[in-house]
Automatic annotation (TrEMBL):
Belongs to the peptidase C15 family. GO terms for biological process: proteolysis. The keyword Protease applies. It comes from the Eukaryota. Gene3D superfamilies: Peptidase C15, pyroglutamyl peptidase I-like. Coiled coil: none annotated. GO terms for molecular function: pyroglutamyl-peptidase activity. GO terms for cellular component: cytosol. InterPro entries: Peptidase_C15, Peptidase_C15-like, Peptidase_C15-like_sf. This is Pyrrolidone-carboxylate peptidase. Keywords: Cytoplasm, Hydrolase, Protease, Thiol protease. SUPFAM superfamilies: Pyrrolidone carboxyl peptidase (pyroglutamate aminopeptidase) (SSF53182).
Length: 219
């Protein structure tokens, strides 16, 4: 496909509400404010900012909402992006012990929650998608994680690639997203951010905007 074509990238973003030990989830604030923030900054050429949803920090109990969010994006793809535009799911989650941003390369088919999720579920060594194989099954993003990290580092952000999204809700959502993405020829990426007390809100909003720009530039 020629680079001159009107190729667009539509990015749908999710964050999470509060959960055990994190009374204010930075990703909820980032996602709620992202559309207004990007309107002020101006969207990079070729980028469409799609839906911005804040998910319950829950596994099985939140799946109906998650699947609804996924399906609506694919329905939109059939209507709007007949010119071959790409759809990317961008999931943001908090790692309260982190000091930098982490671009997650993969998710593992294992749910082992260290504490109950917000709906009271606490699985131990349970397969996330049982039909997809054992708990050691791994799904990787088709996006170039190292290139994304390199571009964001050049912009001055403290960011690293990661091969471990944990075994809690972040990994649970990422695995479902990667599984869904493969079946619908779209892409998925999970990014862990620190608490605002570690990296302030303004910097994190700028990071989210820069991340959208980098993702749009890949196509």
């Amino acid at each position: 496909m020629g680079s001159e074509g009107p190729s667009t990238v539509t990015i749908h973003v999710t964050g999470f509400k509060k959960f055990h030990g994190v009374s204010e989830n930075p990703t909820e604030i980032i996602v709620r404010n992202l559309k207004g923030f990007m309107q002020k900054k101006g969207l990079p050429e070729g980028l469409v900012l799609g839906s911005c949803n804040v998910l319950e920090t829950a596994g099985e109990g939140a799946l109906p909402q998650l699947h609804k969010v996924f399906q609506s994006a694919v329905a939109g793809q059939n209507n709007e992006t007949s010119n071959g535009g790409q759809i990317i799911w961008l999931h943001l989650g908090v790692n309260s012990g982190a000091t930098r941003f982490a671009i997650e390369n993969q998710a593992v088919n294992e749910a082992t929650f260290r504490c109950p999720d917000e709906m009271g579920w606490k699985p131990q060594t349970v397969a996330i998608v049982p039909s997809d194989g054992s708990i050691s099954q791994v799904r990787e993003t088709s996006l170039p994680v190292n290139e994304i990290v390199k571009n964001l580092s050049k912009m001055g952000y403290d960011v690293m690639p990661s091969d471990d999204a944990g075994r809690f809700v972040c990994n649970f959502v990422y695995y479902h997203s990667l599984w869904f993405a493969e079946r619908n020829r779209i892409k998925s990426l999970f990014v862990h951010v620190p608490l605002f007390s570690t990296i302030d809100e303004e910097t994190q909003m700028e990071f989210a905007a820069s991340l959208l720009k980098v993702l749009a530039s890949l196509h």
